[in-house]
Amino acid sequence: MKSPMTSLCYIERNDSYLMMHRIKKKHDVNAGKWIGVGGHFETGESPEECLLREVKEETGLTLLSWRFRGIVTFSQEGFGTEYMCLYTADEFEGKFHDCEEGIMEWVPKSHLMELNLWEGDKIFLKLLKDEEPFFSLKLSYKEDELVEVSLNGKELKKN
C-alpha cells in the first residue's frame, strides 16, 4: 500500500521551474497535468530523504540546496487523503535524464498559469511566488473540481 505522505519539489533555474507534463504513465490521477517532481514516501523515509530520492530517480539530479515551504493536504473522493511536503530547490548537480512518468521542461515562472495545472496547484504556486512563510494548505476535490480550500486552518473558498 502506498504511503499517504508525498514530497513535491519545484526546482528553480533562471526564474523557471522544472515541470513534468504527465503524459507517459498509465492510470495516472495527474494525466495531462503539469506538476513538479516528487512522489510517495518509502517505509522509514523522512521528508528530506523522500525529496532527494524522488528528485534523483525522476531527473538524475542531486539537490544541494532546498527549502521546506509548506504542507499540502489533498483529499479527493475515491483517492483518499494525501499529505504533501512542498519544497523548492535552487541548487543541484548531476546529469539530467528523461523520466518514465512524463516529459520534463523548464517553464518560466511567468508562464506557469498558462499550463494545464490542478486548480489547487495554482494556489500553492502563488504562495511560493509571494514568498509566503511556511504554510498549511488544505485542498479538497470532488472528481477534478476544487470544492474546498483552507490556508493555515482558515477556509478560503467553498463551492
From TrEMBL:
Keyword Repressor appears in the UniProt entry: no
Keyword Magnesium: yes
Ranges annotated as spanning the membrane: none
Cofactor: Mg(2+)
Superkingdom of the source species: Bacteria
UniProt keyword terms in alphabetical order: Hydrolase, Magnesium, Metal-binding
Short name of one Pfam family: NUDIX
Domain Nudix hydrolase: 2-130
InterPro entries: Mutator_MutX_prot, Nudix_hydrolase, NUDIX_hydrolase-like_dom_sf, NUDIX_hydrolase_CS, NUDIX_hydrolase_dom
UniProt family annotation: Belongs to the Nudix hydrolase family.
Record protein name field: 8-oxo-dGTP diphosphatase
Species whose genome carries this gene: Blautia intestinalis
